[in-house]
Amino acid sequence: PPRRRRRRRRAAPPRPSRTARRSPPPSRPAPPGGRGPAPAWWAPPPYEGSEPPYAFRADEGLQRARALLGRLEGARAAQGLDAPPELLAELEAACTSHGVSVKPATSNGRDRLVRAAADLALRETAARVGAGGAGGAPLILGDSPAAFASQFARAVECPPEKAWTLVTAAASRQASARLLQCASLLRANDAAAASLELIQLNSLLREFPYSAGSPEAEMVAAGLARQVREPERLRIAELWEGALGADEPNSEAVAGLL
Question: Which of 161, 85, 173 is nearest to 121 (CA)?
Answer without folding.
Answer: 85
